[in-house]
C-alpha cells in the first residue's frame, strides 16, 4: 500500500510513435481476418466493397470528430466526458457504464477464443489453462505501466500491419500471374448475381460486418488522456485513419474479391483455416498459411483484449473520479496505473469466462450478446458529442481556427455517422425478422444491449433530474 498515490492522476507516457501505430493497427483483428469472408459471401464483391467504403467514410468522420475534441481537451473519460459536458450528464453516465461493462465482458470472450486457437497446436490441452495464462499476461501488460501497455500494442499492431502488407503483396503476385495460380480476376464480379449479391439485403448484412470490423478505433480518444503533447500527437494519429481504411481494409477486400469468388463455401466458415487471408496464402504453402494465420489471429485477439483492459480500467477510473462509483477506483499507484479499476475489470472478465467454462454458458451468452451493440452505441455518443461540441464552441464566440485539430465536413460528418450507426443497429439481426418462422429469441438476444443502455440512461436521468445542457453553458475547461 505504500506505493499508492491518493492523487487521482494518470501519467502521460504515450508518445506520437506509439499512438500512431495503435491508430493504424488498433482495430485490425478478427473482423477483417475472419468476418470479411462472411461479408463477401453475403453481399458479393461489389456489395461488400460498397458497405466497407461507406462504413470507412463514417469512421473517418467519427474519428476526426473525436480527434477534434481529444486534442482540445484530452481526457481518459473520452466520449463519456464529452457527452456529459456537451449534451446530457445522464447520457455520459450511461455511455461510461456501457463501455466499461462491454470491455470487461469482451476481454472474457477474446480470452476464451484464444484458448480455442491454442488447440490448433495443442489439441488435448486445457482451455482453462490457456485462459488463465493469457488473462494473466494481459493483466501484467496493463499493470506494469502505461508505457508498457503502449509498447506491447505497438508491436502487436506492427505485426498485424506487416501481415496485411504481406497479404497485399502476395495478392498482387497472384493476380498479375507471377505464380501458377489462375486468379478469377474480374470474372468473380460477374458470377451469379454479382457484383451485388442479394441486393440491398446483402449490403445491409455486409454493413453490419463492416461496422464490427472497424470497432476499436475509438481507443485513440481514451489514450489521449495519457498521451504526450496531445494537441500535436492526436492530430498526427488521426490523420492516419484515412490511409488505414483505404489500404488495410478496402484494398485487402478488393484483392480477396479478385482471388476468391463470393460463391465459395469456404468463405462462410469461422474456422481460421478458411479465413480469406489463409486461402490466399495457401497458394504458396498450405501448412505455412494455416500456421501463420493462427498465430496472427491469436496476436490480434490478445491485442484487442489488451486494449479492452486498458480502456475499461480507464473508463472505470474516470467514473470513480466523477463520483459515480466508489472513490477507491480512482486511486492510482506511483506508476500512474488505476490499480483498483484494473483489478475490478479483471475480476469481471474472469467471472465471465469462468461461467462459460464451468456452467452451461447461458449466463455468459447473455452477457456477451448484451455488449454486441455497445460499440455502435459508443459511436453514436461520439457523433452527438462532436455535433454539440462544435455548436457550443461557436455559440460561445470561440474561433474554430484556434482548435489544435479541426475536423472536416462539419456538420455533415457527425450527422452522417449518427445515421449510419442507426442503420447498423436497426439491421443488427435482420435475418431473424425475415426468417420463417421469425426468430424472436435471436432477435431478443441481439438487441438486449439496447434496453440495458436505455435503462441506465433513463434511470440516472430520473434519479438525478438531469437536463440537456444549453450550448452557452457547456464547459470547455480541460481535465
Please specify the SSE layout and strand pairing.
Blueprint: E1 4-5, H1 16-25, H2 30-72, H3 78-86, H4 89-118, H5 127-144, H6 146-175, H7 199-214, H8 219-223, H9 230-238, H10 241-259, H11 276-281, H12 286-321, E2 332-333, H13 339-358, H14 362-370, H15 374-395, H16 412-426, H17 430-434, H18 440-446, H19 449-464
Antiparallel strand pairs: 1-2
GO cellular component, one term: membrane
Main location: membrane
Membrane topology: Multi-pass membrane protein
Written overview of the protein:
With 479 residues, the chain is mainly α. The protein has one domain: Amino acid/polyamine transporter I (Up-down Bundle). The N terminus is likely disordered.
Task: Summarize the model shown.
Helices cover 68% and strands 1% of the residues.
Average per-residue pLDDT, rounded, comes to 81
Biggest sheet strand line-up? 1-2
Evaluate the radius of gyration: 22 Å
- N-to-C span: 27 Å
Write down the secondary-structure element order: EHHHHHHHHHHHHEHHHHHHH
What distinguishing features does this structure have?
disordered N terminus; amino-acid transport; amino acid transmembrane transporter activity; mainly alpha; membrane; transport; AA-permease/SLC12A_dom; Amino acid/polyamine transporter I; 479 residues; 19 helices; single chain; two-stranded antiparallel sheet
